[in-house]
Design brief:
Strand content: under 5%
Structural class: mainly alpha
Largest sheet: none
Order of helices and strands: HHHH
Number of helices: 4
Distance between the termini: 29 Å
Radius of gyration: 19 Å
Shape: globular
Length: about 100
Amino acid sequence: MGWHQHSYRSRVNYNSYFSLGMLINLLIFPTSGMFYPVEGLPIWLRVVSYINPLTYTVEAFRGIMLRRLTILDLGTNFFFLLLFSVAMILAGVLSYRRRIE
């Protein structure tokens, strides 16, 4: 009985995390510039795009593949990705500490 309840809870958590992941993907992909240029977006959506870390990843890959840029030329993109990564790691650590206490 206990194993069944644990298994059911795990599936519920997995499904909720999966749904949240799909929702986040739905929001970040169109604003990343992956399918069309960010410059063509309305101004309010362009602001959202510059907050989106996927925008900097797409721009870095596009620069390397199409414009033959080097890693040194993409310092701004890597800076924003590093900044976002540090912020998310700190948020995760702080969230984890709250759950333990």
